[in-house]
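Researcher: Structure prediction, please.
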Amino acid sequence: MSVLILLWKEIIDNLRDRQTVFYALLFGPVLLPLCIGGALVAGLKQAAVSFDEPAALAVAYAERAPNLMEFLKANNMDIELAPDDIQASVRQGDVPVVLEVPEDFASALRAGQPAPLIVHVNDSDKHSAKEARKVSTLLNVYGQTLNALRMQHRGINPSVFNSVDITLQDVSSNGFRGQLLASLLPFLLIVAMVMGGFYLAIDTTAGERERESLEPLLSLPLARHKLVLGKYLAVLVFVMLSSVLTAISVFLVFRFFSPELAGGELSFDAQTIFTAWLLASPLTFFISAVLMSVAAATKSSKEAQTYLGLLMVFPMAPFFILQFVQIRSVNTTMALPMLSQYQLLEQVVLQDALSPTHIALSVIGTLLAACLLLFGAVRLYSRERFL
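Model: Predicted structure follows.
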């Protein structure tokens, strides 16, 4: 009962702290997924080129290449008249891309020589660069078709020039962009957990010692382990609440995301997000214990913020490491907190099969580490010279 009273007291006290509420319930769970996840999804949508959607293409001197114009129209390109000042119009964004057909285009084709084409693009403009990639791809297809027709006209089989036939078979179900998006979910969840309990852990330990409000608590007929447990549960409540809100925010952000943009089969539906949150939930106990034990070892709020600020690197480290280093999901790595959750959550998003053994090792290893850290915090509070 005394633990619950202390828990309620800590929660009420910190709900009055605007900074704690902002980082625990707004910044980590809402603003962070919107800023990072939303920007990444928008970037992938901007970079993706769709050849099925009709698009307008401004062409200068279209009458010089009638067959090319028919080819472009057959591939969902609506031909429009180019502006008078081509370069200025593209630079200012009036038109994204302009295709210019030079005067010697037709004569070069008749002579069997490379026919010149000019694509005016503004590489500093993302929309212009995207449209230029689409136009260039279509022009390359047109050029390959003409090459094949030229050789057939001369009685040459075009396949004679294909010395090797290389097929790149990607056995992954996701690709690089899919892997990046899959690792984004554990990154957002874990960082939000840390932010959720960051200021509460500081205030309830180093903050109380600095305000000299910890001594009256220690003078109460309350066992030290119960005192630590009450404070720990308060931090745990905020960390867990932050993780739940983050899962909801990620689900809402990825409602506007199409899996095909990542080059694979990704899933961000309600069931996937819930499964991912469930697998990451043991981290709430571990992260709360880390925040609690580190903050308890400091003597002031400023010192606690310094050390915990440095610890923010650890939740982010697996995200960046896994982008450059391939770490297989084996029993050894699955016993490590954070790294195991990153790997498990990636598998959930990529819809890979989960190993019950790996899940068990992840849960046991994370909870065991949390218990050891919490035991260390109790030992700190049990010291006679703790104050």
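Model: The first helix runs from residue 2 to 15.
Researcher: Thanks, that helps.
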